Amino acid sequence: MTNPEIEKKLSILPSYLKKQNAPAYLTSKIIQRLSLLEKPRQTEGFSFFVLRWSLAIAALWIIGISLFFKMDTINKVKVKFVVINRNAETISIVGDFNKWDKNANKLIKNGDKWLLEMNLRPGRYQYMFVVNGSDWVTDQKAREIIDDGFGQSNSILDTNSAQTEKI
């Protein structure tokens, strides 16, 4: 057969083909077979995919928080404050390091001594003690003092000096 003869027979072919529907019994058998196939397992309301990602995110969050706290203590200097005062009921320390807040850092009484240890970033800080919530007192052991502009003197703490203990 030549090309034109093949083309002619092919052009007539669609008229011979008729659209036919599958018999009803065949359709029902196919649907029945499909329903018997094993369905993928799924646990109701729970997904291992979600669990895995939740655990991964939680682990990263914990690692990040622990690194944050570790970084917060790097290059800090441990400073110990000691005040001897028999008559005080409370003593706190205020300064540049705590925005002069009387309630931020309270010393702990141990006999006649009041003690507080702090970790500060390297630097130079002005500070004073507040006795019984109202009496602002200069640290008599401070190596340096400076006029505070209100008729008193602030103590100076330089955490770069050899007197402080680096952690």
Characterization of the model:
The relative contact order is 0.12. The chain has a domain at 76-166: Immunoglobulin-like (Sandwich), CATH 2.60.40. β7 and β8 (153-158) form a beta hairpin. Strands 2, 5, 6, 7 and 8 form a five-stranded antiparallel β-sheet that branches. A four-stranded antiparallel β-sheet has the order 3-4-1-9, with no helix packed on it. The protein has 167 residues and is of the alpha+beta class. The mean pLDDT is 81. It is 32% helix and 28% strand.
Morphology call = rod-shaped
Distance between the termini: 98 Å
- Our Rg estimate from Cα atoms comes to 41 Å
Main beta sheet: 5 strands, antiparallel
